[in-house]
TrEMBL record:
Methyltransferase listed as a keyword: yes
InterPro entries cross-referenced by the UniProt entry: Alpha/beta_knot_MTases, RNA_MeTrfase_TrmJ/LasT, SpoU_MeTrfase, tRNA_m1G_MTases_N
Organism expressing this protein natively: Thalassospira xianhensis MCCC 1A02616
Name of the protein described by the UniProt record: rRNA methyltransferase
Keyword Membrane found: no
Assigned GO CC terms: cytosol
GO biological process: tRNA nucleoside ribose methylation
Length: 263
């Protein structure tokens, strides 16, 4: 990130978090495998989340398998905090959300990850500190964990198979959080060192191609010629051709005639 961007960050913000001072906290309740913790940490940093809290990790902490599976997300691993009680892990949070795929008896708001993201963004923008709880890999959260939360988060998946591993669940929440704060077009054409062909370049390509097709006898039925020519133009117009691609195609047309192309 540039010095200008760094200077514009709010107090307490870090480049790793996309300029957010207090991104959501991830709380893992009784995680069983260091591998899963490390993969969750990797998913967190992908999405600008760096505050990981563990409650009673089965294999203790620190954990070499977690570090190995974090694949360089050292800022998350090195700052991970361990707690014996859920209440202590949540003590400084203003809002807590809990992830579960099961239907429970508690009457609570239920978010999808996509719906939760703007909710958390709004809370964080007001200076609140929020966290998302994830249960043990084998059993998920228990009823007492749900009672500690302000709302439930459920991922809408195939109702016949909703099982996710821990890192996948963390990534789904983190991804929606990150996407809610970035302005990236849903579609863009990578141009590298070239640029889109102009209409004039495309018209010259079509005229060149149609002239060669005429010479080769492709348009055998004159009555069908206009429609066939339009179809050919539609094919190339859908391709979003670049300047270089038009030049290449015109060179190919000439080469098939045994000539030399001159732009």
């Amino acid at each position: 990130m540039s010095d200008v961007a760094d200077a514009a960050m709010p107090d307490g913000a870090r480049p790793e978090t996309g300029g957010i001072a207090n991104p959501p906290v991830i709380i893992l309740i009784e995680p069983q495998l260091g591998d899963n913790i490390g993969k969750a940490a990797r998913a967190m940093l992908n999405c600008g989340l760096i505050d990981l809290r563990l409650v009673r990790p089965r294999d203790g902490w620190p954990n070499e398998r977690a570090t190995a599976n974090a694949s360089g997300a050292d800022i998350v691993i090195d700052n991970t905090k361990v707690f014996e009680r859920e209440e202590d892990a949540l003590a400084d949070l203003n809002r807590v959300y809990v992830t579960t795929a099961r239907t429970r008896d508690a009457i609570k708001p239920v978010f999808t990850p996509k719906g939760l993201a703007p909710e958390m963004r709004a809370n964080v923008s007001r200076g609140e500190k929020v966290g998302v709880m994830f249960g043990p890999e084998r059993t998920g959260v228990r009823n007492e964990h749900i009672s500690m939360a302000d709302a439930v988060v459920t991922v809408p998946l195939n109702p016949g198979f909703t099982s996710l591993n821990l890192a996948q669940a963390v990534l789904l929440i983190g991804y929606e959080w990150w996407q809610a704060g970035v302005d990236v077009p849903d579609y863009q054409m990578m141009m590298n060192d070239t640029f889109p062909a102009t209409r004039d370049e495309l018209d010259r390509l079509f005229e060149h191609l149609e002239a060669e097709l005429d010479n080769s006898g492709f348009f055998r039925v004159e009555a069908k010629r206009p429609n066939m020519a339009r179809n050919i133009r539609n094919i190339f117009n859908r391709a979003n051709l670049t300047h270089q691609e038009v030049q290449t195609l015109r060179g190919m047309i000439v080469a098939m005639r045994g000539g030399k192309f001159k732009a």
